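Section handout 9: paired folding examples.
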Amino acid sequence: MWIKRLILAIISFAFGFGVTYVIVKLIGTNLEEFGIWYTSFTSLALACALGVWLDKFMGTNLLPK
């Protein structure tokens, strides 16, 4: 079960940072100008959003029913 949860966390954080990076590039700036706090919080929010879906489909039961 811990392996599934670790995989869920890795996929979620990678997705969150990747999508944040794409969004920042689409608006015409870079990560330094966007700021470390905005990058961190945006990545975390996107990772949590994907994590909820992955929890359901991977059956890790991190969230209560």
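Moving on to protein 2 of 2.
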Amino acid sequence: MTLKYIPQRPPFVMIGEVVAADERHTQTTFTIAADNVLTNNGYFTEGGLIENMAQTAGAGTGYMAIHNNKPMPMGYIAMLKNVIITALPRVNDTIKTEVTFEQVLLNFHLVKGKVMNGDKEIASCEFKIFVNPEKPADK
């Protein structure tokens, strides 16, 4: 159940299944529904793709916290860099997202993300996430 790994709740959940997660990598899948709040004219928006990558990173952090018997921390996007979006997926497409935690500096996680639609990479970016271990995520 993905919802136990992220603080977001419907209608703002932009990931489906957590396929894999460890200290450095997280993979999720997500099937885009027609009623998703980040769709427009039958396509998942640029903002939806970025949120999908961020929630994938959050799911990895939440997964590791829960499996290490720690509270799930709250995280915030602090910076986006090198955002590349080459295509928007359509409603009913299933995208696969992978994030790699490149480095942790104090409470900042440097992360690279990419989104695949079938065998085509459609989006990527680098981002910095501020993780506040003192403030557990509300569920």
